[in-house]
Amino acid sequence: MSGILEGKRILITGVLMESSIAFHAAKLAQEQGAEIILTAFPRPTLTARVAKKLPKPTKVIELDVTNAEHLTGLEEVVRKELGGLDGIVHSIGFAPQDALGGNFLDTPFESVSTAMHVSAFSLKSLTMALLPLMTEADGPDAVSGGSVVGLTFDAQFAWKQYDWMGPAKAALESTSRYLARYLGERNVRCNLVSAGPLGSMAAKSIPGFSDLASAWDTRSPLAWDLTDPEPAGRGVVALLSDWFPKTTGEIIHVDGGLHAVG
């Protein structure tokens, strides 16, 4: 029996550790039949080391999503490696330390700008850099198009200590909706997975993360495990597949249901 991503070619960003959602999305994608390529920044050697734990070997390329030269050359590199592209996983977020940890009122615009560029605008710039590969048909009977899936942390609330990453995620969510609007005519879907808190490298960079995550201990309808990124990875893979052919501009919550309760 073939997997739900059989024959798909997927570019995945953000594989930093085995605890990364992106790592589990990559692992599941390979298990479901996809051919993948990974991008990394600023330490591609770290990602290459973690990638050895995936079921199949995969190439790792350096990609700074704020670097215009990197983005300009990305299509050629991916075309050479995969021949085309059916999906993108955007698992990129960053804010300087002075934009986190209770410093919201005093954060300078330069730091806010960095958070917005890396965490939100990059969804658009990465998608546009790879759009030609997703909108090319491989043969006379092929249907062009693809699926872009990003990762967010519910931006409808102001989370303690999360500070300017909150507005950055809100911008990411809005950017995804606009991409869905403008790329639908090219059969490109754009959706997000809103994951609950996980003990990833990104989470550990947030001062007071344990206080933020403690809400899930008492409020989440389904038991939530901070150490298990696989449910979020499954959500990503499902959205990459053809099982959501008419879903775009959506945010799928994989958070134990906490977003739904008062």
What does this structure look like?
With 262 residues, the protein is α/β, with parallel strands linked by helices. The protein has one domain: NAD(P)-binding Rossmann-like Domain (Rossmann fold), CATH 3.40.50.720. The protein is 40% helix and 14% strand. Helix 1 links the parallel strand 1 and strand 2. The termini are far apart.
Q: From the alpha carbons, calculate the radius of gyration and give it in angstroms.
A: 18 Å
Question: Uncertain spans, ≥5 residues at pLDDT below 50?
Answer: none
Question: What is the CATH top level name?
Answer: Alpha Beta
Main sheet?
7 strands, parallel
Q: How many domains, as an integer? A: 1
The termini sit apart by: 42 Å
Strand content: 5-15%
Q: Tell me the overall shape.
A: globular
CATH homologous superfamily name?
Answer: NAD(P)-binding Rossmann-like Domain
How are helices and strands ordered from N to C? EHEHEHEHEHEHHHHE
Named CATH topology: Rossmann fold
Helix content, binned percent? 25-40%
Count of individual helical segments? 9
* Computed structural class: alpha/beta
Please render the helix and strand layout as text.
Elements: E1 9-13, H1 21-31, E2 35-40, H2 44-51, E3 60-62, H3 68-82, E4 87-90, H4 109-134, E5 146-152, H5 165-183, E6 188-195, H6 201-204, H7 209-213, H8 215-219, H9 230-240, E7 251-254
Helix pairs in contact: 1-9, 3-4, 4-5
Would you kindly provide a brief summary of this structure?
Helices cover 40% and strands 14% of the residues. The protein is α/β, with parallel strands linked by helices. The protein has one domain (9-134, 142-260): NAD(P)-binding Rossmann-like Domain (Rossmann fold).
